[in-house]
Design a protein that fits this description.
iron; mainly alpha; manganese ion transmembrane transporter activity; membrane; single chain; Amino acid/polyamine transporter I
Length: 557
């Protein structure tokens, strides 16, 4: 019996599972699972948005509107406080010179989000669910823990971003820990908006994106940056006179834009639309409209990021602490002590960024900046909570009540954030942000490698599996992104100047690289490197055939 025949038999067997007759486009759907039938609970999916029928045009705005939503929720991760801080630091350190890095990172992000959306549409499952069914127990648990770390790191930045915004808006009256508690409370409230309808929840996220666009757009108009400089920085991939500081900032932009948990999130969000996965035409159409919607959403997020970079590039590039101190002193700002009297280049974060804007452009600039940061933090905190729920439910196959799931995922992420807020001063969070950026960079392979693996397998994706061009280009892009992020990690570790940290990092690196190699091995087999498929299923959890080595009984898992 050859591999194709064996694959057909497995597919036929799975298609008859539970007495449900399916065809190739639904043979891996979880809908026929007895568990799914007995337990109707959902997260975010208590209703599904219907897609207009009998629309025969090649392109329909009605259908695009029906598919609009998941891409904009996904794009919020490109606008979280970590990204905003990376943007303003990029502008202050390199001027307009790194805008092309931001553009390239956003395009790469779009290509990776395309893979995530296709997995969710074609299989009817999100990435965490597929990982749960395809990887053996130990790798699956390790993968879940790594993604949870990424979510916790991202969530800490987002919640603290909200707390900083509240601190600025209250003129320091609300301490950092108080802002964290407020953010936790209102996040619980906002998360239950989907009880009033999925489209209303998506509209609320759209409102928050609009607030960001208006807030940061106001700053852009107020500062009035050099438009020629903006366009040159965006489309000329060169950085004249740049050194190690600018290089590290460029690497930081890539790490801030491409976030691991967002791949898991997007593959889940697309399940909220009614798509007949038994119909190849409908699946193809859904993939097309989700890609268009994602492109529009990321274009808007890119423009908002450009606003922030351009504002700080125009107003604060090559500014020194003494320059800022003098200006803040002249305007009567109570925060002049943030900027020591020396000629060191200005170092800013989202807190100091607001203070500097207030010193140079008036109190309105500070408060509008804080409103934009609050919208960024609140929206990304909510989508981060959804990511945590999808990841935990998918990897662990949890069947808990809605409130229990939200409470658990929030507690895991919020507890360390609250501790940081209690023991850290709002003015001295840069070191923690650097550490959190490194933490998220290290987790990136644990999203990118699995998504390329599963979308390349015809046993999972059928006719929608990655072609040769996508396999090669996807592999190159993921290798490049992971290499850039690993450089960022190495730079951070070497800057610690501690033998103890070096030894600890060495031990962690060995275990880390071993697990990465394990995932890469799986991925290469999925990409067609059959010479690596030398293990038996009993020994390593794989079968001997490239196309079916990951094809478990998707319904019975």
């Amino acid at each position: 019996m050859n591999a194709q025949q064996e694959g057909d038999i497995l597919e036929d067997d799975s298609s008859q599972d539970n007495g449900v007759q399916t065809n190739q486009y639904s043979s891996i759907a979880p809908a026929a699972s007895p568990v799914a039938q007995e337990d109707p609970f959902t997260t975010y999916f208590e209703e599904k948005v219907p897609i207009p029928e009998n629309v025969n045009q090649i392109f329909s705005f009605r259908k695009l509107w029906a598919f609009t939503g998941p891409g904009f929720l996904m794009s919020i991760a490109y606008l979280d406080p970590g990204n905003i801080e990376s943007d303003l630091q990029s502008g202050a350190v390199a001027g307009f010179k790194l805008l092309w890095v931001l553009l390239g990172s956003t395009i790469i992000g779009l290509l990776l989000q395309r893979l995530a959306a296709r997995l969710g549409v074609v299989t009817g499952m999100h990435l965490a669910e597929v990982c749960n069914r395809q990887y053996p127990t130990v790798p699956r648990v390790i993968l879940w823990l790594m993604i949870e770390l990424a979510i916790i790191g991202s969530d800490m930045q987002e919640v603290i971003g909200c707390a900083i915004a509240l601190n600025l808006l209250s003129v320091g009256r609300i301490p950092l820990w108080g802002g964290v508690l407020i953010t936790i409370t209102d996040t619980f409230v906002f998360l239950f908006l989907d009880k009033y309808g999925l489209r209303k929840l998506e509209a609320f996220f759209g409102f928050l994106i609009t607030v960001m666009a208006v807030s940061f757009g106001y700053e852009y108009v107020l500062v009035n940056p050099n438009q020629g400089g903006v366009l040159k920085g965006m489309f000329v991939p060169y950085c004249a006179g740049c050194g190690s500081q600018q290089l590290e900032q460029a690497v930081g932009i890539v790490g801030a834009v491409i976030m691991p948990h967002n791949i898991y999130l997007h593959s889940a969000l697309v399940k909220s639309r009614e798509v007949d996965r038994k119909n190849k035409k409908d699946v193809k159409e859904a993939n097309k409209y989700f890609f268009i919607e994602s492109a529009i959403a990321l274009f808007i997020s890119f423009l908002i990021n450009v606003f922030v970079v351009a504002v700080f590039a125009q107003a604060f590039y090559n500014k020194t602490n003494m320059d800022v101190n003098a200006e803040c002193n002249a305007t009567g700002s109570p925060h002049t002590d943030l900027f020591p009297l020396n000629n060191d280049t200005l170092q800013v974060d989202i807190y100091k960024g607001g203070i500097v804007l207030g010193c140079f452009f008036g109190p309105a600039a500070l408060y509008i900046w804080a409103i934009g940061i609050l919208a960024a933090g609140q929206s990304s905190t909510m989508t981060g909570t959804y990511s945590g729920q999808f990841v935990m439910e998918g990897f662990l196959n949890l069947r808990w009540s809605r409130f229990a799931r939200v409470l658990l995922t929030r507690s895991i992420a919020i507890t360390p954030t609250l501790l940081v807020a209690i023991f850290q001063d709002v003015r001295h969070l840069t070191g923690m942000n650097d550490f959190l950026n490194v933490l998220q960079s290290m987790q990136l392979p644990f999203a990118l490698i699995p998504i390329l693996t599963f979308t390349s397998l015809t046993s999972i994706m059928n006719d929608f599996a990655n072609g040769l061009v996508w396999k090669i280009s996807g592999g190159i892009v993921i290798l490049m992104v992971c290499a850039i992020n690993m450089y960022f990690v190495v730079v951070y570790v070497t800057s610690l100047n501690s033998v103890l940290y070096y030894v600890l990092a060495g031990f962690i690196s060995v275990a880390y690289l071993c697990f990465i190699l394990y995932l890469v091995w799986h991925c290469l087999i999925a990409l067609g490197v059959s010479c690596l498929d030398f293990g038996s299923r009993m020994q390593v959890g794989l079968s001997r055939h490239t196309d079916i080595y990951l094809l478990n009984d998707m319904d019975g898992a």
